[in-house]
Amino acid sequence: MPATVLQAAVAGCTAALGLIAGGLWHASESPTSQLFGRTLVAGNDPNEFGLTFDDGPNPIATSQLLEVLARHQVKATFFAIGKYVRQHPTLARQILAEGHILGNHTMTHPRLSLEPEASIREELTTCNAVLSDITGAPIRYFRPPFGARRPIVLRIARELGLVPVLWNVTAYDWDPVGPHRIYSNLQQGIARNQKSRRGSNLLLHDGGHRAMGSPRNDTVLAVDRLLNERRAPPPRYVTVDAWSRYA
Question: Is 218 a catalytic residue?
Fold first, then answer.
């Protein structure tokens, strides 16, 4: 085989492998991909919105969000990190006492798609035990940190009785972008989903996985603005269990 032909063949194979690897990486972290297994994203009613908050509980933000939600009579879903629940058990109990859902966001927030099976099981099992022991309530929902998963992650979650939950609107509120930008990100995602006749599962953060006490006042302000907004028809804010039939 001439060298130029061989080189072309090798380049073609390399490109194909790169595309496959890229596709698998995308599937492992794309919040709406179902390639590695079924996950709950949202329902089919474009006027249903689900507020979900990751990386808490966080004393400087979670309490403020609970006050905003109570004022608007809206329930939300909080995916909590186990080590933070241990530090602030009263906040975790308050979330449930006020009618919200508390979900498993692992014990320490690793990228589960890169973890060995034993570590994945330990992260989910320990977080479940911490949340259940502190609140006295069963835990039914799980969100993988960064959305990162592979088939074994979803299989272990199901074995533990957990429904994996992803999202289809990202607020990008983990950086200090300001409440207007967060609100705009939510609006754009909602408009996209409504055009596709889908409900909107909104990813926001009441904490930060790098350290306790992450500032989230911009998120609080953006959520308050969203809930003050007048739409026609008015949205129905739901917790993720309203979409359980899609899981």
Answer: no
